[in-house]
Design a protein that fits this description.
The chain is an alpha/beta fold and 185 residues long. The chain is built from 4 helices and 12 strands. It has a 7-stranded mixed sheet. A 3-stranded mixed sheet has the order 8-7-10.
């Protein structure tokens, strides 16, 4: 029952997100990045895991400066492998059509990471996220070595909802950031 609820909600919100006018999407993304920069979790982090926007997810590119150390995922089988990436380094198109660092880029270990920016289709006011259904981030965030690292869910305001259907494997995020709001849990 829960999975069909999640599937319907996912389809509705993805359609809404993908229907955003490019200019509006860019403006919302810029405001979200400014809002994120004001969070102490972000300000204090030296090494941050992030993502490259896919299917009109909030665009975080303005954050990617050399002031911090960045990590980005490569999808390998059913896991995410995190690689160090500097602005200007080459990128490859991965299995799911998402930009990924080179396979030769240095791998980041969990003990090096201060913060994880987590993409989501939706987040709720309890700190839970709705992903794309592949379980990549659920597996990552459930893994003992990654659990202690703070997480911030990244969504637009319309995808911040009162309550999501929760499964036993869902993990609460430490914070959620939208273009107008920030929530710490």
């Amino acid at each position: 029952m829960i999975s069909s609820e999640k599937k319907k909600l996912r389809q509705k919100l993805l359609k809404q997100r993908q229907s955003l006018d490019q200019k509006i999407w860019q403006e919302k993304s810029d405001r979200l990045c400014q809002n994120l920069k004001s969070l102490s979790l972000f300000q204090e982090a030296k090494t941050i895991l992030a993502y490259f926007s896919f299917r009109q997810e909030p665009l975080l590119n303005s954050l990617f400066t050399r002031e911090r150390r960045w990590g980005f995922p490569r999808c390998v089988d059913q896991s995410l492998i995190w690689h160090h990436w500097n602005p200007g380094d080459s990128l490859n198109l991965g299995t799911y059509g998402i930009l990924e660092p080179s396979i030769n880029a240095p791998i980041l270990d969990p003990f090096e990471v201060d913060l994880i920016l987590v993409p989501a289709v939706a987040c709720d006011n309890q700190g839970y996220r709705l992903g794309y259904g592949g379980g990549f981030y659920d597996r990552l965030l459930s893994s003992p070595q990654w659990q202690p690292i703070p997480t911030i869910g990244i969504v637009f305001d319309f995808a911040y909802i009162s309550q999501l259907p929760i499964e036993p494997w869902d993990r609460r995020l430490k914070a959620i950031c939208t273009e107008t709001q920030r929530f710490i849990y």
